[in-house]
Amino acid sequence: MKLTRFERQTLTGPAVVGCVLGSLVGFVTLAFDSDYGNLTRWGVALDVVTSFLATVAIAMVPLWLLPIAIHRLRGLKRGGQDDRER
Predict the structure, then answer these.
(1) Under a CB-based contact definition with an 8 Å cutoff, are residues 54 and 19 in contact?
(2) Would 55 disulfide with which of 22, 35, 41, 85, CB 3.0-4.6 Å?
(3) Based on the structure, what is the number of domains in the chain?
């Protein structure tokens, strides 16, 4: 599946938002596990990475995937036109 110019531009914002929020959640997870967790270093690292990736995924779905899906569905209703054909 090739991304159009519109879709690549739409991807940038949610990726940045997801990484910023993911970093914040990762740091909070690290602080919480350091104070209250009984995990090893690998357990803490796995917990931080998992929380970062989950936050990025949660930010990407509504902010990137849904607008792309709506854009493509609207294109199908108009007869299959996309950005390259206009």
Answers:
(1) no
(2) 22
(3) 1
Whether 74 is covered by a domain: the verdict is yes
In angstroms, rounded to a whole number, what is the distance separating the alpha carbons of residues 15 and 6?
15
pTM (predicted TM-score): 0.72
18 in a domain, yes or no?
Answer: yes
Please report the sign of the dihedral spanned by the C-alpha atoms of residue 45, residue 48, residue 52, residue 54: positive
The closest alpha carbon to 18, from 46, 70, 54, belongs to 54
pLDDT at 67: 82
Asked whether residue 55 is assigned to any structural domain, the reply reads yes
* C-alpha–C-alpha distance, residues 59 and 66, integer Å: 11
pLDDT tens across 23-77, in order? 999 999 999 988 887 788 898 899 999 999 999 999 888 888 888 888 888 877 7
